[in-house]
């Protein structure tokens, strides 16, 4: 019987294009550029990784390290955003955050209408 939910030895670094941005359940769909494989990202190493990915729109590409969640079909865990330093926090005004959220919501609505 399978004793681990993750496969640490299977972690790989790859560039992925976001097909569907993160939803309300923190899941998102990406396409691995090298193989054209579609993967579902459902777990994240940290809240900082999850938050960073949640801000990216469809079509964005991102280098990341991920591992398969063997017991969950095509589910993957992001273990690292390659080249991103989460220790430095960017300070933004609340007004900029509201503007960005409005733009993202508009983009999602346009995508749904298509």
TrEMBL record:
Segments for region (Disordered): 91-114
Superkingdom classification of source: Archaea
Organism: Halogeometricum salsisoli
Domain DUF7999 positions: 11-82
Family matches, as InterPro entries: DUF7999
UniProt name for this protein: DUF7999 domain-containing protein
Feature: compositional bias, Basic and acidic residues: 93-114
């Amino acid at each position: 019987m399978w004793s681990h939910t993750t496969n640490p030895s299977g972690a790989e670094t790859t560039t992925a294009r976001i097909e569907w941005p993160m939803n309300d359940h923190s899941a998102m769909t990406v396409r691995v550029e090298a193989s054209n494989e579609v993967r579902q990202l459902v777990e994240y190493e940290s809240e900082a990784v999850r938050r960073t990915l949640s801000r990216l729109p469809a079509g964005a590409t991102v280098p990341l390290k991920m591992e398969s969640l063997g017991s969950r079909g095509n589910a993957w865990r992001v273990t690292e955003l390659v080249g991103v330093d989460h220790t430095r926090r960017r300070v933004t005004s609340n007004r900029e955050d509201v503007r960005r959220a409005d733009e993202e919501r508009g983009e999602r609505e346009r995508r749904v209408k298509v």
